[in-house]
């Protein structure tokens, strides 16, 4: 069943019997500050990305191709349902912004590196994890409007259901961690750039030097998990750093994993623009790595503000 954007937007609101229906039909959460607007614009930016991704996953493969790849009956249809959910999210957030006098950011042009149903679902797991992290990180900034917080929270729970369904489809655990990982706007925006070819309009968010995760590749079905002590390899271009760094300086990988935890591990050079680092104890699910000269004492916000030389890079551990 296709649900209209207006119907979903209405459903986001607390149902209050003390007011007549006509006074609630077009009520949407207000945007009370520039912070609210920036959080919603980033959410919309990521929703456009996800909508394009899932639309492609639905249109580019047949039911037979999903079945041949080992997915259960009806999987392609549900990918289409997810795409429709993302369209409704776009319509709802756009209406909230427009009602407040802001111009919603338009979609970009994207390039997604998948070639078959399995690589599509693996990529969708990564991208949806970024969207979940962005909503978690942004919701704490919507402190001046509890209704807006509730609306954002109701979207992130649906996004989590999407991700659990995708993970189950490839035989992975639908809930690999007891907590998800919150991302700052800077980190979420930079992770999205991997798939953006061009945009009619970008957001006023800093683009950090790129950190590329090289190896190891996630195991099939994400089982068994990549274990603690496994060597991770990353590449970067030191000429793009925003600050001068002594070539002999010790570098570290800061790994964001679950809530806002950051674990710093010593990086070992593997050549110019190349480092390795071990997976720390307790890391699981999806993590986000940054290259830094700091060996501790910073949280995710501080890392994104001044502690990152390059990154983040997404690392799927389980």
Write structural notes for this entry.
The protein is of the alpha+beta class and 318 residues long. The chain is built from eight helices and ten strands. It has helices spanning 5-11, 34-59, 63-68, 75-99, 117-139, 146-169, 185-192, 300-307; strands at residues 109-110, 196-198, 211-215, 231-236, 252-256, 262-266, 268-269, 274-278, 286-292, 310-316. The strands form three sheets. It has a four-stranded antiparallel β-sheet with strand order 3-4-8-7, with no helix packed on it. A hairpin with a 4-residue loop joins strand 7 (268-269) and strand 8. It is globular, with a radius of gyration of 20 Å. The chain starts with a helix and ends with a strand. Mean pLDDT is 89; it is low at 1-26.
Write the layout of secondary structure elements.
Elements lengths: L4 H7 L22 H26 L3 H6 L6 H25 L9 E2 L6 H23 L6 H24 L15 H8 L3 E3 L12 E5 L15 E6 L15 E5 L5 E5 L1 E2 L4 E5 L7 E7 L7 H8 L2 E7 L2
Antiparallel strand pairs: 1-2, 3-4, 4-8, 5-6, 5-9, 7-8, 9-10
Helix pairs in contact: 1-4, 2-4, 2-5, 5-6, 5-7
Quick summary:
The chain is an alpha+beta fold and 318 residues long. It has eight helices and ten strands. Helices cover 40% and strands 15% of the residues.
Q: How many strand segments? A: 10
Instruction: Describe the main β-sheet briefly.
Output: 4 strands, antiparallel
Helix content: 25-40%
Helical/strand content category: alpha+beta
Shape: globular
Looking across the biggest beta sheet, what order are the strands in? Answer: 3-4-8-7
Order of helices and strands: HHHHEHHHEEEEEEEEHE
Low-confidence stretches: 1-26
Estimated radius of gyration: 20 Å
Strand content: 5-15%
The number of distinct helices, counting runs of at least 4 residues, comes to: 8
Mean pLDDT across residues: 89
Whole-Å distance between the termini? 33 Å
